[in-house]
Amino acid sequence: MRAFLAGARVQLRFMTAYPDSLIPFFTSPLFTIVFLLVFKHAGRPDLTAYAAIAPVFIALWWLALFNSGWTVTMERWNGTLEMLVASPSSFGAVIFGRIAATTAIGTVSFFEAWLVARLIFGTTVTIHHWGAFLLTVVATLAAMAGTAVGMAALFVLARNAVTFSNSASYPFYVLGGILVPVSLLPHWVRPLSDVVFLSWAADLLRATLRVGPIHQFWPHLGMVVLLGACGYAVGLFALRVILVRVRESGELSTT
Amino acid sequence: MSTLRVVWYSIVNGANDYWSIFTLKSWVFGWLIRVVSQVTFFALIGKLLQKQAQTDFLLIGNAVMVAGMGATFALHQPTNERGNGTLPLLLASPSRPVVVMLARGLYVVADAIWSALLGLAIVGPAFGLHFPWPRVLLVIPLTVLVGAAAYCFSTFLAGVIIAHRNINNLVVNTTIVLLMALCGVNVPVSFFPTWLEWISRCLPITDGLEAIRGVLAGDAWSSIAAHVGGELLSASGWLALALLTFGRFIRAGQRDGSLEFAS
User: Fold this and answer.
1) Could you say which of A30, A162, A180 has the minimum Cβ distance to residue B45?
2) pLDDT per residue as tens digits for the range A151-191
3) SS (H, E, C) chain B
């Protein structure tokens, strides 16, 4: 736990020192404006909830891709990975602490998006199912952090990690149905969407902003948690393999 | 003649940079998929609204925006030079840094324009967008114009932030979304208040995009020509600003030492 908290503290300091890591908090309100403009121009105020949710997912995904995903790689580039591996603390706990801190900070975008909706467009986002909303947010953040651990491992292994992180935004926004529900995608795409936790999370969050009952809340929430846990497990396993490999080959500082 | 040589070597440098970033495989399965997904993401909003006109508007706007977005990535050029430690050499040389920067980033614009056209050609038919033949061919030079205008704009911005490389990515990303919001990419600029519409018209992309929409919608040539003129004016204005100010920003950075020691 102490290692986890230490990781979280370090990450918060990094984020305040590097303005680039705060990009989503500048772009999230702008995306809210773009989406709300489109819906206002189309005369569809009923879609305000869609416009208020999508920028949050964009911000969280961006943080997972560019901050959390690069955590281990940045430790390597900074020459601090060796010290981290040699210390008695759990390597996984420190990394997860850093990623969890980044993900938790991402919730700021909720307030930004909804504030923009209120101040610029005069629309209010009403949460009709508070319990379900809070549970979904917590599950989404956990799944995002879990997926980010998977990315952190992938980026160490992949030769084209930069290309991947630059390219893996919009494909997941489409597959995850963060603005337009997956039900509007062609049938052949839907099996792919089913394995992206964003699609379950986005549907649930939108449902919590609607008056009517939420259908199949628990199974959907379970899918968010399950897919996030899968990402975390794969990431943790890959990180262990990487550490064992570089320790055995003695190439820790040069890999 | 020496300027031409500088331009040529800068282009060759840029091309080598480009091929070190992308292989054909990573371009197709990474970048191109992102471009297609980006255009699809916005076109799908039209499906959500159940209006073909909205779908076409969003699709065309966001496909052309890829040219503007890619050109804005050129903001990374001076920062990359600093990161690579080659900026001091460039500043010490007798060539004008702005000429080198402009020429060196041309590959970014070429890639952006090509990506935008591919995005339009691939996603358009999937969403039932009609391409009137042979007018549609005009979309190619007009997209080149949009990319070039956005590139002039981003070169100007690159000079402004050259001493502040720690906010480079922030400026790139924020600028891209701002252009998406203001340049008539997702809603017509006539929807904005008049003062905001005027600001939009000063930015790159806006008029060029309207010209492209006009070509695809079969508008009168006079209207298209007016928008082309507007985009040319915008591009020239941003280019002039870049040429006038880039050297000043560099010299200011040299004077206060911020170019090499800024964090």
Assistant:
1) A180
2) 887 777 766 677 777 788 899 999 999 999 999 998 998 89
3) CHHHHHHHHHHHHHHHHHHHHCCHHHHHHHHHHHHHHHHHHHHHHHHHHCCHHHHHHHHHHHHHHHHHHHHHHHHHHHHHHHHHCCHHHHHHCCCCHHHHHHHHCHHHHHHHHHHHHHHHHHHHHHCCCCCCCCHHHHHHHHHHHHHHHHHHHHHHHHHHCCCCHHHHHHHHHHHHHHHHHHCCCCCCHHHCCHHHHHHHHHCCCHHHHHHHHHHHHCCCHHHHHHHHHHHHHHHHHHHHHHHHHHHHHHHHHHHHCHHHHCC
